[in-house]
Amino acid sequence: MNPAFDTYIQSLAGRDMTVIGAGVSNSPLIRMLCSAGARVTVRDRNPALPREEWDNLGVGLRLGENYLDRVGGDVVFRTPGMRPDHPALDSARAGGSRVTSEMEEFFALCPCPIFGVTGSDGKTTTTSLIADMLADGGRTVHLGGNIGTPLLTRAGEMSPLDACAVELSSFQLMDMTRSPHVAVITNLSPNHLDWHRDMDEYTAAKRRLLDFQSADDFAVLNGDNPATAALRGRGRTKYFGGHTVYDGVIDGLLPISDIRLPGWYNVENVMAAMTAVRGTVSDEAILETVRNFVGVEHRNQWVATMGGVHYYNNSIGSSPARTVSTLHAHVGRVLLIAGGRDKKVPFDEMARLLPDHVKVLLLIGEAASQIEAAARRVPSCPPIVRCEGLAEAVAQAHKLATPGDTVLLSPACTAFDQYRNFEERGRHFVDLVGVLHRSEGKD
Question: Are 132 and 279 in contact, with CB atoms under 8 Å apart?
């Protein structure tokens, strides 16, 4: 089905391949390399990595503190969380290794158009909308990338008539040398500054989505966001935003009232997806998708309503900018649960919204003191409740909320101080609310 992929697989036999990181996203890659006859070495920081499957496949393991000693091989696959300029990778290059990534290889081998999406906020919702619009328009769609599904191992099943909707993080983009046919940047704001050296590096990583486009490619950019409005693609470029709305209708096609997702930021996500696919699928398919799309888990997800109090899970809100956008989406007073591990991004803008949007601020995690300090610098700061963890925060919010209020988990921080990822944090919140709901039902 994909001759280029078949040739690639055949070229792997007998070659020395190194894969850094044995997590869920790299496991299919490791298995693919082994089945192609490559000699595979896996390097992972975790000394307790389960070995049985890899031992059975003949994988060499380098685990624990010194897992990056003398990295080499014909090809080295970088895990996205590892900086491309890491000394271990520089040493491997100096020794003759080709350093690449699962996503770089996929872009080289994908036989169909790629709709690539990046940005500080809205990536997953926009990518999911694009995938649904393409599918409703009759295309076979492959959804993946940073959204959780590796795509390289599926490239052999793809045909030129298919389409790929791919979410891309700044970590993945930093050393990419290819761009998608359709490149969407939803917005740019300070984010991941605990990993990137500064905002300039972060912006440059995002901009690489456009850097390798040709004159036949298409860029979709947010005209209302100053950082993206200043960018331009190398082919056609279209800017979405408020300038396309007349009498409550976007681009003469979609009434904003048909969008079931709350908040202007979700209107922007719909605009981005519409702009990306319009002309590829029918307007009817776009309208069908939008009218049926109710959101993505952990993204301002309604969980329950109890005693007139609404509970929302926005665990994806791992930066202050995301929390700001989500607060704007809710009418009335919010009991906001925030905190976790900070990204070295100031909380001041978020703090300025608190008097008008937040009834009670419930703080958890490592960054609780920093958020509290920013909040207390603002006149009319709402009451602040410090909690040991999410369970206590939900219990306190339940006690303090009155009918018409919203309890919102939107932490403005990563989950890594207490959870493996934002999904685990969000699921814990949903479980805690579920316990409350069941106990309320028994009363």
Answer: no
Distance in angstroms (rounded) separating the CA atoms of residues 94 and 73: 11
The string of DSSP codes covering 266-299 is: HHHHHHHHHHHHBTTB-HHHHHHHHHH----TTS
Q: The whole model's pTM is what?
A: 0.76
Among candidates 331, 365, 380, 369, which has minimal Cα distance to 347? 369
Residue whose tokens read 């993080």: 169
Q: What is the pLDDT of residues 108-161, one digit of tens each?
A: 999 999 999 999 888 888 999 999 999 999 999 999 888 767 899 999 999 999
Instruction: From 191, 24, 171, select the one nearest 84 (Cα to Cα).
Output: 171
Residues 6+ apart with CB under 8 A from 374: 346, 347, 348, 350, 351
N-term to C-term CA, the chain: 59
DSSP state for residue 341 in the 8-state scheme: B
CA-wise closest residue to 410 among 398, 395, 425: 425
Query: Would the CA dihedral through 330, 333, 337, 342 be positive or negative?
Result: positive
What's the CA angle centered on 124, arms 122 and 130, to 5 degrees? 100
The total of other beta-carbon atoms located within 10 Å of residue 392's CB is: 15
DSSP for 384-433? Answer: EEE-SSHHHHHHHHHHH--TT-EEEE--SSBSTTTSSSHHHHHHHHHHHH
62 forms beta bridges with: 43
Cβ atoms within 10 Å, residue 426: 25
d(CA 37, CA 73): 15
